[in-house]
Structure formats: structure tokens, C-alpha cells
Design brief:
The protein has 454 residues and is an alpha/beta fold. It contains 17 helices and 15 strands. The N and C termini lie far apart (60 Å). Bound molecules: S-adenosylmethionine and FE2/S2 (inorganic) cluster.
Length: 454
């Protein structure tokens, strides 16, 4: 039985560069156009779109199959999508100019493709060729480094409405020959479009990487560019067991970029945390290491009855103030300069938050922070940790395991931890009813509560 009236399979298979594939022929843009058209026409509950792997017809890609009738389309372009939706999906008449209904030819091509593929795999296996997956993992830094350099140089802003490599080189004060090489690499990665001698931003680059764009992420992404330099020390950091000092540590932009990077993550996650914890009977919140203040800002906006105090390092507090003032919640959010391991944290808070904090510290330091946070809570109050949480054996999830290394190269004693470590520290600090709240995305909450009886 079909749960949907229509089921579309769109091949999005990628192949090594140079080999024909639906991905190389633009299946991503077709998929995008289909999703948009289905949404616009309100067909979401009728039509299911499933991406699929190679169907052996790669030379004819992008390939797409419509079920239940089993109509095969080839060489589909985004501009064909409105016609397919109107004529086929809505009126039941396949678009004949795109249909491929020579079953014998299709089968022959597919079978030949399968045989060639298996023969090539067997030959690679016999010759001991490095699997493509490992090869890509090894070279994965190249596209990343290319994009980070483009962000550091602010290339996308310099491209503006379109320019040649000499103009762009002059705008970013860099060597013209080298800039041309970088621009060509960015074009090969689909981050710029090249026509003649001129380069233009793609819609995505213009939206996310150009200064002045509403959705510009460059400032926050420069933090990732800074982290890159720390990751180059990984081998030595593994030998030493802690971070290795580098020249970039003195970069005056490090802290503003870091806080912008934190804001980039936190502003989307903050409403999820507010929803998970609720604001009912919450009056006072202590936000330890609040950074850009995104979580306090979200609580303040969610309830006029909530008052937040953000404690952060003296060099960060002026930056926090800018974010809080811009959000228009300074009447509800107070800033305190200090160190969460020293001095008086205060008392009587309904919630003490540790968002993206514990990974910076050692087990011993975290236990001390939890003990101090527990003292600051009112009866019935909650200590809330948000962080990447490792599996019990610490060998995953991948993002958390890699983040642990991010802390190795960036801190003296930081690491990612697993749920039983957090739970143990909470219990040792005298918190009860410790539970994990799953959130969408890579980080979860661990919440411990003080008993209601004083
Ligand atoms: C990874 S950021 C997280 C920021 C924020 N909680 C968020 O999730 O967006 C860590 C924050 O802790 C602050 N911090 C680091 N060490 C601290 C300390 N000893 N006392 C107070 N704040 C500290 C940093 O300045 C930074 O703002
Ligand atoms: S890559 Fe799509 S059919 Fe082969």
C-alpha cells in the first residue's frame, strides 16, 4: 500500500571528479526546485520526495523516477520542475519531452554501468588503492582552508556585484596572481561563479559571507578560522597533553570573533533551551560564562518576570553589553565581571546555567563549579548544563569526540564528557532528580534540581 499519492525518487549520487553523475549534472538544484514547488503548491502531504543513489543512467542525469506509474525522467533541469509538477503531479500527464521510456536501452545502460562499476572496484581492491572515503578524509582540509582564507581576506565582500581578479586583489590588498588562483578554486567549489574574467557571488555566498547582508555569518565564522591555527598544533598537543602556545594567541580580534562565533550557535539554540526549561516560577537566573548573552536574552524576552545575571571574564563583559543592549533587554539582564571559580556567586537563583562551559574545564574544576553553583541555587532551583555529550564509551558521537580535541588544542585541561560524568558531578554537588533533556542538534541538557525543602 502506498502511503503517498506520488513518490519521487531523485538521484543525487556524487562520483569522483570527472565521472558523469547526477550530482555533477546539477541534481541538487533540481531537488531544491522540487522541494520549493511542492511547498508552494501545498502538495506536501500528497507527494513524498526521496533522494537516492546511482541508477546506472549517469550520462543521462539528473535522473528522476515518479511512482506509482514508474515514469523515468532524464536530463531534468530546475526550469523543468514547474512543468513536471503542474502537468504530471497535478494533472496526471507525464512531460513527454523529458520521459525516457525505452526500457530495453535503459536496462542495457544500467547493467553495463553495474558491471563496469564492479570491475573497477575489484581492480582497485586488487591493486590496494586507498578507498575514496579515506582519500577524501585526508584531503578534506583543502576546501575548508580555501573558504576560511576567503573569509579572512573578506573576498566575498570584495567581489561585490562582480569583478575581475585584479580588482578583487586590489580591494583585499593581496597578490593578484595568488588571488586569481584562490578565486578559481572558490569557483570550482561552487562558492563563486565565473564568467569570462569576472567572478560573481553565488546566491549562498552573497547571503552568508558578504558584509552588510542580513544573514552574514562571516564574523562568527572567523572564530573557526582562528581555531584552524590551533588545530595545526594537534600533533604536538597530543604529545604534550595540553594546548601549545602559538603566535595567533595575541590576535586582538580573537575574543570578539570568539564571542561572535558563540552567538552564531547560541541564538538558534536559546529558544529551544527556554522551551525545554520553561519560565513558569522562574524569577532569577545566573548565566555563568554567558558570552554573547544569547540565553539570558532569550529568557528575558520570553518572560518580563525573569531577571538574569551574566557572569563573564572582564575582557568579555563589554562585548556582552553590546549584544544585550542591541536586544533591548538591559533592564532585565545585569552583567558581572568575574571568574566562576573564584569569589561569591550570589544566592537564591532559580536556575544556574552552564551553556557550553564545562568542556573548557577539567573534571576537578567542573566539580568545584557544580558545588559553587549548587550553593547559589534557591530551594527547588535547577543547575542546567548544555554541552556536547559523549557516548558512554566516549567513541562518539563524532561531533562530540572531535570537539574534545578542539578543547585539547584550545585549553589546558578541557574535554568533552559523557552523561555519567555529568550525573556523577551533579549528585556529588548535592543535586537530585538529575535528568538529560534531548535537544535538536549536537548538544543536550543535563538538569539537576535542589530538593524543595531547605
Ligand atoms: C564557549 S563560551 C560559551 C558562551 C555562552 N554560554 C554560550 O553558550 O553561547 C564560554 C564562555 O565562558 C567564559 N569564561 C571562560 N572562563 C570563564 C571563567 N573562569 N569565569 C567566567 N566566565 C568564563 C568565556 O569568556 C565565554 O564567554
Ligand atoms: S549518478 Fe544518477 S544515475 Fe548514476
Amino acid at each position: 500500500m502506498e502511503p503517498f499519492r506520488i513518490h519521487l525518487f531523485v538521484c543525487t549520487q556524487q562520483k569522483p571528479e570527472g565521472a558523469a553523475s547526477c550530482a555533477a549534472k546539477g541534481s541538487a538544484a533540481v531537488l531544491d526546485a522540487l522541494n520549493r514547488e511542492i511547498q508552494v503548491r501545498g502538495l506536501g502531504s500528497d507527494v513524498q520526495i526521496t533522494t537516492c543513489g546511482c541508477m546506472g543512467l549517469c550520462e543521462e542525469g539528473p535522473v528522476m523516477v515518479v511512482y506509482p506509474e514508474g515514469a523515468w525522467y532524464r536530463r531534468v533541469q530546475p526550469s523543468d520542475v514547474p512543468e513536471i509538477v503542474t502537468q504530471h503531479l497535478l494533472a496526471g500527464k507525464p512531460v513527454t519531452r523529458l520521459l525516457w521510456d525505452d526500457a530495453a536501452a535503459m536496462k542495457a545502460m544500467s547493467v553495463e554501468h553495474g558491471e563496469n562499476f564492479r570491475a573497477a572496484m575489484a581492480a582497485r581492491e586488487k591493486a590496494g588503492v586507498l578507498p575514496e572515503r579515506l582519500d577524501q578524509m585526508i584531503r578534506g582540509f583543502m576546501p575548508s582552508r580555501c573558504l576560511l582564507t576567503a573569509l579572512e581576506l573578506d573576498i566575498f565582500t570584495a567581489v561585490g556585484d562582480g569583478a575581475n581578479s585584479e580588482q578583487i586583489g586590489a580591494r583585499v590588498h593581496a597578490n593578484a596572481r595568488a588571488v586569481a588562483m584562490l578565486l578559481n578554486a572558490l569557483a570550482s567549489l561552487g562558492l563563486l561563479a565565473k564568467s569570462g574574467d569576472d567572478y560573481r557571488n553565488t546566491p549562498e555566498s552573497a547571503r552568508f559571507f558578504v558584509q552588510g547582508s542580513k544573514d552574514n555569518h562571516r564574523n562568527g565564522l572567523l572564530h573557526t578560522a582562528n581555531i584552524w591555527h590551533r588545530w595545526s598544533t594537534l600533533t604536538d598537543a597530543v604529545r604534550r597533553g595540553a594546548r601549545i602556545p602559538i603566535d595567533g594567541d595575541a590576535n586582538p580580534e580573537w575574543t570578539p570573533n570568539f564571542i561572535a562565533g558563540m552567538q552564531r550557535n547560541a541564538r538558534d539554540r536559546a529558544p529551544l533551551v527556554v522551551k525545554a526549561l520553561g519560565t513558569e516560577s522562574v524569577r532569577r537566573i545566573l548565566d555563568l560564562g554567558g558570552g554573547s548573552g544569547a540565553y539570558s536574552i532569550a529568557f528575558a524576552k520570553a518572560s518580563p518576570a525573569v531577571k538574569c545575571e551574566i557572569l563573564d571574564l572582564p575582557e568579555v563583559v563589554p562585548l556582552t553589553a553590546e549584544y544585550v543592549n542591541r536586544a533591548g533587554v538591559s533592564a532585565q539582564v545585569v552583567l558581572r565581571a568575574g571568574h566562576m571559580l573564584h569569589g561569591n556567586l550570589g544566592s537564591g537563583y532559580d536556575i544556574v546555567m552552564l551553556n557550553a562551559i564545562c568542556h573548557m574545564f577539567s573534571e576537578k574544576q567542573n566539580m568545584e563549579i557544580f558545588r559553587r553553583a549548587r550553593q547559589a541555587l534557591a530551594p527547588g532551583g535547577r543547575l542546567v548544563v548544555q554541552d556536547f555529550i559523549l557516548n558512554p564509551d566516549k567513541a562518539g558521537p563524532q561531533q562530540a569526540a572531535l570537539f574534545s580535541l578542539n578543547m585539547l588544542v584550545g585549553t589546558e585541561e578541557g574535554a568533552a564528557y559523557n552523561e555519567s560524568e555529568y550525573t556523577g558531578w551533579m549528585k556529588a554537588a548535592g543535586l537530585n532528580e538529575v535528568r538529560r533533556i534531548k535537544l535538536p542538534g549536537p548538544a543536550d541538557l543535563i538538569v539537576g534540581q535542589v530538593r524543595n525543602t531547605p
